[in-house]
Design a protein that fits this description.
It contains two helices and five strands, in the order αβαββββ. With about 110 residues, the chain is α+β, with helices and mostly antiparallel strands.
């Protein structure tokens, strides 16, 4: 199973999942996080799209790729979060997540 998108500069969801598993395994050894999730926790979906390179070349209707995405099978405590626009002038460019299952949770900015 491929971990990249042919006509894109990014990993697909499978590539991101492989990287997540490796980071989580390393953090688990340091007792920072619990065990990483398994692929069985996700539904593997295929979407046809051009990717960002194809879009930049205006060829996304020609350079189409089968892009793998992962959809969680179960409800998650991690939700989208608001960001203070005074701290980040372009908050719409950020992906902000927080775990709402416990108080004092920190937000993750990507």
């Amino acid at each position: 199973m491929r971990i990249n998108i042919l006509n894109d500069t990014h990993w697909n969801s499978m590539g991101a999942f492989v990287a997540y598993r490796e980071v989580a395994k390393s953090l688990e050894q340091d007792s920072v996080v619990s065990k990483p999730l398994h692929l069985e926790n996700y539904e593997v979906l295929n979407v046809m799209d051009g990717g960002d390179l194809a879009n930049m070349l205006s060829m996304n209707d020609i350079l189409i790729d089968d892009i793998i995405t992962l959809k969680p099978k179960y409800e998650t405590a991690v939700k989208s979060a608001e960001v203070d626009a005074t701290l980040f002038p372009n908050p719409n460019l950020l992906v902000v997540k927080e775990n709402t299952s416990f108080s004092g949770a920190r937000k993750l900015l990507m």
